[in-house]
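Human:
Focus on the backbone:
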Amino acid sequence: MKSTDVSRRAFLRFAGGLGSALLVTACSSSPGAGPAAAATNPSTSPPVAPAATAPVAAGSSGKVTVNLWQHEYPPNDKAYKMLIADFEKANPDVTVAFDTVSANDFEQKLLTALAAGAGPDIFRMPTWTTASYVTKGIVKPLDPTALGKSSHQELLNEYDPPSSVDGWIWEGKLYSIPVEMSVLEPWYRLDVMGELGMDKSKLPANWDDLWALCQKMTQKDSSGKISRIGFNWTWNDIWTMHQFSPILAQVKGSILSDDGKTVTLDSPEGLRALEIYGGAYKLGAASKAFNVPQAFENAKQGVLISGPFEPATVLSVNSKLEYSKDFVNGRFPQVPGDEPVAYIWGPTSLTPNPKSKVTSQLYAVIKFMWDRPQVFWNVANLLVTRKILLQSEDLKKAPWIPTFLEDYKIARPAVKSYIYAEIQTALFQMAQAVVVENKDAKSALRQAAADISKALASQ
């Protein structure tokens, strides 16, 4: 198994969140279950969906089967099954065959099936695979008319801001319908801050202040062993890309040139971003050696950078905690004087197979699900910036969402490249060398740039 295939939901901070404590809606159990996973007043109302669309006409052969593949994630699986049942009820001549594959194995199984001409009609395409899939001819731009729009611009105008779907755009065309678009923000244990006499009304706005806060939150026992850590990054190549990319963008650095042909990482901006990235570790406010499962949820970690699904994860561990009393989220930290940038990534989407023989039916399935983002939100806490969700009552029940919506406006995806996997591996090795092994930052940056250049040359 390649480390680059590991799902974010395999990490320890989400591992314990699939029990009965997450039953936020009548048919959900999720580490991000429902907008009203707010600690004080979980909602029990079922997901709200638009009126059913017109039934799909069957072909001359009678019943049609549309094959849909997604990576395995129980809350999301539940949302899909609900939507499929509703779709099939409205369209009795169409059967949707839903199959899930572990995140570790998904891409390999998908590419093998597509190469053999036996791939699914609809599949997941994470934002980080867009460049690779487009350049290899695996996917084609969406057909706007099949989704009830006249152009790609009309599709993009369904989102606020339209730039929030950039990860699925190539040369101005949208290639997939997002199911989840996550933005990172810091989550704070207010109860820990209160215990230390800190001002809970003033959350850090920049990295220096965040690391200083985390340093104050870190505690050691009488033997000198860390008993509570202020902060920790998530340590693997997938998350290093998520975490390092926005800092690099904030200081106006980049990994590749605009045309994607030249490595630009080894630069003063790259070095500055790496220093910021490792700032908490230099202060002793973070330590990779501090490996406590669900540390933030158990108040063993003061600050965690995570997505809008975090409240339900916290509640799954301790249902007595309350949002805004015991924990809260704040805006993504910035570098003073530089360009404000947040980070967005999309692990889940609906992508049509251009070689499918049931094109009209597969688009009917995609449109049906596209028009019901509330179901994914209520059941699996998967957030997209489609206006019909942003304006819905469902989302208004989540008091932590407004700051996320503000960060969506300045959010950018990671670098778009067909060697994305090689880039994230190089960045992880760079971060590991500097933060964990205390190696020279300039040398580590130079080595990462060399590794990426080698990957580019080999293509």
Notes: The longest strand covers residues 342-352.
